[in-house]
Amino acid sequence: MTEPMRARNGAHNVRIAISATPRREERGQALARELPALIGSGTVAEWHALQDAQTCCSAGTTALVVLLDARDVPTGLSALLDAAEEAHLAVLLLIDDGGRRRASTETAAVESIDADDATVAAVLRGMIGRQPEIERLGRELAIATRFTGGLRGEISRMQEELQLAAQVQREFLPRSFPEVGDVRADAFWRPASYVSGDIYDVVRLDERHIGVFIADAVGHGVPAALLTMVICRGLPSKEVGNGTYRIIPPGEALARINTDMVTHQGRTTRFATAVYCVIDTSTGHATMAGAGHPPPVILRASGETELIETPGGLLGVFEGERYEDVQFQLSPGDRLLIYSDGFEQAFPGDPSGTRQARLPSKRYLDEFVAVRAAPTAAALVQQIARRVDMQFGSVHQADDLTLLVIERLREGMTPA
């Protein structure tokens, strides 16, 4: 007897159950008598009628042999094979196949019913010898299946949490925009994943001033989203005291945010770009400061396009960084576009779909100019959204996208 047999069945215990359909019972009973001597010392072969054979699939049974005649209806065969599989038995089917070789099934080996006893014994000897390895693999598969099930559940839980995080982030964004004087605003915001590393806000500061803010955390996903939400909620816009207030200039506001970020930095540096602008809606005078952010664009009513450069380093990097205020004027009909750097990849320089198509480019400036004739800020946002959707690779957006459009109504236009 081989060592694998000893490992699984004890030193002297190989038990083989044999059954057959009615026309092959005589051969099956003869096989039960011959197999012990052919397989080796300690082997026991037991005959069972097919309808009763399911009871043999118990502890101590090593293998099952079933003889099938094509002219018989094998009543109970399916239940028998199921029981053998559950008991992890080696199964050999001897089939009346007219001399044609049959491949093994998923749960049993197959030989011709005309195979001689020595061949049957040799096949069984090999199957019994490899059974311990099959059982070991089965146990490992069961463990892997349980692990996979747990992993699948963990992934589902993470997806639910990300969806909840996305919902919370959307709830923190403005649902409507203040309408102060003749200045109107609208926004386009689209995350690359569940949550966005971009955030924006448009707030009414007093009866004539509004504050416009956009921030873009370096990176993606939940860490970036949390950072920008903290930055946005920590933006100091006004100081109130002694019955009066002071609107904090943009450069000072960004400097305070930078100080807070540097102070609270851990071992991992988190940083962001930002633009903050305060607009006097009665005069159109604007004061802006930026922190490493792409330069905002003014689409002048005259047809000219102007970039507003804002010197200043990234938020959260350099202690004591200074952010210079930049002054400019919004005339009636002018539109101010403040956007995140995702637009550099949303409108690739090469629209053909080649490998270079996703490289950053300045083509988005042409897209902004192309929609300048839109009748309102909201219409301009809708047209930009359609143009983004038409781009190659827009289904797999490379970066978060945010666009704020601030419009000073033309003279004579009735505010909405």
Structure description:
The chain is α+β, with helices and mostly antiparallel strands. It has two domains: 3-140, Response regulator (Rossmann fold); 173-408, Phosphatase 2c, domain 1 (4-Layer Sandwich), CATH 3.60.40. Helix content is 34%, strand content 24%. It has nine helices and 17 strands. The strands form four sheets. Strands 2-1-3-4-5 form a five-stranded parallel β-sheet, with helices on both faces. A five-stranded antiparallel β-sheet has the order 6-17-16-13-14, with helices on one face. Helix 1 (3-9) packs across helix 4 (117-172) and helix 2 (25-39) packs across helix 4 (117-172). The longest helix is centred in the middle third of the chain and has 56 residues, at 117-172.
Key structural traits:
416 residues, alpha+beta, Rossmann fold, Phosphatase 2c, domain 1, 2 domains, five-stranded parallel sheet, five-stranded antiparallel sheet, 9 helices, 34% helix, disordered N terminus
Number of strands: 17
Rg computed from alpha carbons, rounded to a whole number of angstroms: 39 Å
Would you list the SSEs in sequence order as H and E?
Answer: HEHEEHEEHEEEHEEHEEEEEEHHHE
Query: Can you give the mean pLDDT?
Result: 84
Tell me about the biggest sheet? 5 strands, parallel
The CATH architecture term of the largest domain is 4-Layer Sandwich
- Counting structural domains, the number is 2
Might you state the CATH topology name of the largest domain? Phosphatase 2c, domain 1
Taken from the alpha-carbon principal axes, the silhouette is: rod-shaped
Per DSSP, the total helix count is 9
Give start-end ranges of low-pLDDT stretches. Answer: 1-12, 99-104
Which superfamily, in CATH terms, is the homologous superfamily of the largest domain? PPM-type phosphatase domain
Provide the CATH top-level class of the largest domain.
Alpha Beta
Share in helix: 25-40%
